[in-house]
Design a protein that fits this description.
Layout (H helix, E strand, L loop, with lengths): L2 H23 L4 H6 L1 H15 L5 H7 L5 H12 L4 H15 L24 H7 L4 E6 L2 E5 L1 H8 L4 E4 L6 E4 L1 H5 L2 E8 L2 E7 L1 H13 L5
Parallel strand pairs: 1-6
Antiparallel strand pairs: 1-2, 3-4, 5-6
Helix pairs in contact: 1-3, 1-4, 3-5, 4-6, 5-6
Length: 218
Amino acid sequence: MEREQIIEAFQKKLDECWNNYMYTLGRYSKESLIKMSEEITATRFLYNELHGGGYPEDYMEYLMRFANPLEVVRDQWLSERNIDFSEELNHALWFLFDKGDAEQFYALDPGYTPIDETNKIVTVREFIERHPCTNLEIMSPGGYVCLTPEKAQMLLSSQSIMGNAGHPDYVMDVTADEILNQKVSDANFSDGTWYMLSVCIQEAEQNQNSFEQGVTMC
């Protein structure tokens, strides 16, 4: 399915969720609506933000499996209680997509058909492109890399940047080819910075194959 088709299907589902939500609100008293103001504001913001189709198709595909994706994202959003709306929404979406445990708490759409069940890899390059305006601290197999948005753009333009081997005094060059094609194995957002763990894709695939075959590597 092409990105345009995914966006169209996702927007249609969001419209259904929003219309149902507005219908439900119509049955509440004014006093109840005042108490629900934070929820209503968050729901409206998320509906408008997600409806724009500016987020990765991986996230949209994942959310479409739920009967009410707007509710799922809103609850995650409100649980984080942060002010930087655009980047915090990215974090909420990443958390839902990466952890994949929301299925335990929310009803699934019985009519949903998975688009692609293969495991998808998010590279450091793709992660930077999705979060162009934030700081990143990456722990990679070759050492630590701290990226401002400007340094991240240098990497994307194939320029080398400076990293260290675990201590600021041990500085080294980190090439774009060395780190951009690594897999993001974990990521957490805190105080305006993404903290990431990256691994070489070949190593990740070898570990996965060994796990599936029941082999213990030393």
